[in-house]
Amino acid sequence: MKKTLLMLITFLSFTTAVNAQFEGSKQVFESPKLKDAIKIHKLVAILPFEVKISYRKQPKNFSAEANRDQEQSMSKSIQSSMYTFLLRKRSDYTVDFQDVDKTNILLKKAGMLGKLDEYTRDEVAKVLGVDAVIGGKFETEQTKTEAGAIASAVIFGGFGGKSGTGTMFLTLNNGGDGELLWRFFKTMDDNIMSSTDDMVERMMRKISRNFPYKS
User: Residue 146: in which H helix or E strand, if any?
Assistant: First the structure.
């Protein structure tokens, strides 16, 4: 029994060490106006993320159209996952978050969906009727084929299955004037065993202490 317990403790310590090794650096920016601005915020919208998927070595039968479709799908997937995370912990925050389906419908009606880079953040906030907007960008470079990643995962017990690396930018802009109030940057490893929900969960856990609306 003691031997089994010791092995379990050793395994958990190894897991923690490996995960810590694979976690990338992070940077946080806070505007001097942040604290005063968020005091009057009541409703915040989460925008679709800008996603870019690239390959260190382009796979066979690569389709640019399919790649764009995957980027668009992941854009809304990250948006939805972040909304679900914040909704689940809404009692921890000082604001409410607009339903992402409503956000996307309003953006589509205004002709902004898929063209957010053509508008200022205050213009977007006005259309959505919110006090601030959360936006983001996720870029990932795939470094292994899926089969290769699976093989590594089997060999290394799940720790060698990294199929790419990624960078995540998260921004908070004031709705009234569009000014950048807060920015979070994080590099992370993309594992084939991780869903978008898992990735967002990991990221939000990392920024929870720095998230502006934490009550």
Answer: helix 146-155
